[in-house]
Amino acid sequence: MLYTGQRLLCVLLLLLLPATLRAQTKLTPQQYQQDFDYFWTTVNENYCYFDKKQTDWAKVRTYYGAQLPGISTKAQFTRLLENALNELYDNHASLSTNLPDSRRLLPSGTDVWAQYQQGKPVVVAVRAGYGAKRSGLRPGMELVAVNDVPIAQAATPLLGHCLKTPDDAAREVALNQALAGTHNTIRKLTVKSQGRQLELYPDKPTSQLENIRYAGLLESRKLGSAGYIKINNSLGDNRLIPAFDSTLNALAATSGLVLDLRETPGGGNSTVARAIMGRFITQEQSYQRHEFAAEEREFGIKRSTLELVAPRRQPYARPLVVLVSRWTGSMAEGITIGFDAMHRATIMGTEMARLNGAIESFRLPNAGFGFNIPTERLYRVDGLPRENFVPAERVDPAAQAGGDATLDKAVEYLKTAAKP
């Protein structure tokens, strides 16, 4: 039995617990309903890409709302919202929390990308420096199974239940979710290559995707007379600005520069982006166009803006090549289309992550976690949707098997571009 003084002490200790621990208290059915209604309505009013989706969002409310009476834990509610958000098959929409058996996020949480080619699931890109490549996976291989489950059987359950008709984009997202796997499962990939069937283990001896570590915010070196800077997924870290400035200053005398954005899947902020671009121009220029879909939907009045980037001190005026890949995502895609629009760089590589628009974060009133959805459409200055941009200088991903063909091509380009 607790005496009065002990009860008071327990109450005080509870109040002193971190908010994250206090938030673990059990929610009522009414609170789950309130959070679900807030989630559905917020997406309904603010998500800006419904017009290119097969998603029946009204059906989402009915289908998942019917499951709420069976929800009694935050883990169950998290899974319900994960599944509901997956109906958008949008890699730029996500929850701010996950479960041990949640699917890894695309593209930041995966090291392989595949597409259906002539009806067959084929690897089109492999992330450099990660387990998939280390295990022997290469572009061009046909996928047979994930963890001994045939690809079609593994991917089909990941298609939404509220799609009018599953389209190619939905099938591709489901395929890559199956390949990415869950946070707590070691992957086994069965593939066909040159008539042979191979079994590959990208997460052995350890799952590198669960513990990504970088040597620093960026890396740099000289490649002959040219300079090289690689951004290590740090475009959301304002400390990158002084680090980038000092690195670029040290490479000021080079004949040209390679800016490698192939390991930037996690997005970033426009402050860092404009700081980087501003070091390569001498006059203010537009680099990206925004459209605000919610305002047009509510009032019927279209609103769009151009975002500018201003020049900064000590501009680098030599030729610039920007390298991109499937793991060039979000803000890195904005930097890329910005350099392209300003005619300040040659873009080399493959398709980028094709992430939709600019995201906004919202927080559930009771569960204590949030979700992110695209609320602004983004375009190159001339109106090309950012997600549709492809490099003018394409590099075949299959050419990467024995080295770094994209970087080699960039260095050769700079040798010619630097000549008077």
UniProtKB/TrEMBL annotation:
Keywords: Signal. It holds the Pfam family Tricorn_C1. GO terms for biological process: proteolysis. Residues 193-396 form the Tail specific protease domain. The keyword Signal applies. GO terms for molecular function: serine-type peptidase activity. InterPro entries: ClpP/crotonase-like_dom_sf, PDZ_sf, Tail-specific_protease, Tricorn_C1. Residues 1-23 form the signal peptide. The keyword ATP-binding does not apply. SMART domains: TSPc (SM00245). This is Peptidase. It comes from Hymenobacter wooponensis.
